[in-house]
Amino acid sequence: MKQRLQFFAKAPEIMKAVSALNKAVDECGLEVGVLHLIKLRASQINGCSYCVEMHSREARRDGETETRLYLVSAWKESPLFSERERAALAWTEATTLIASNGVSDERYARTLAHFSEEELVKLSVAIGMINTWNRLCIPFHAIHPMPAAKAA
Predict the structure, then answer these.
(1) Looking at residue 106, what DSSP letter applies?
(2) Distances from the Cα of 125 to the Cα of 6, 120, 150, angstroms
């Protein structure tokens, strides 16, 4: 796949603002592990191979296990995630797929059982942030930071 355009070069001012929000999310105080999980899960849902690869690599760098990374897409059936992580993953799915069913009162209450209201705002902005990156990388065919795999 060939990159369609380099969005940082074509719109540097707005990308500077996007990058500033991304930095604020990364420094918002939520656990880095939770942030990795939600970035990976939203990117899986959206089919953003660039972000799936990048966030898997970053999570491994920060100590996440291969097994848990493999199971993010099947987190509901895996015992390897804490209740807080499960709440974050469920909130990620609900808000990433918001057009399908919205976010139910039950999902809201279940998430508030594990996140304060302030944390829930931060979590939602973090999910919005990764969805923004997915919506830049997918249509503009962002080039992977790793070499392309050889055909078998």
Answers:
(1) H
(2) 24, 9, 37
Q: What angle do CA 121, 118, 64 make, to 5 degrees?
A: 75
Q: Which of 149, 143, 91 is nearest to 115 (CA)?
A: 91
- How far CA 138 is from CA of 1, 51, 114, in Å, comes to 11, 9, 32
- How big is the CA angle at 42 (ends 147 and 104), to the nearest 5 degrees? 175
Number of helices followed by number of strands (H, E) in the chain: 9, 0
Residue 143: the pLDDT is 81
The verdict on pTM exceeding 0.90 is yes
Distance between CA atoms of residues 49 and 55, nearest Å: 10
Distances (CA, A) of 116 to 23, 38, 89, 111: 21, 17, 16, 9
d(CA 36, CA 94) in angstroms, rounded, equals: 17
What are 29-88's pLDDT values in tens digits?
999 999 999 999 999 999 999 999 999 999 999 999 999 999 999 999 999 999 999 999
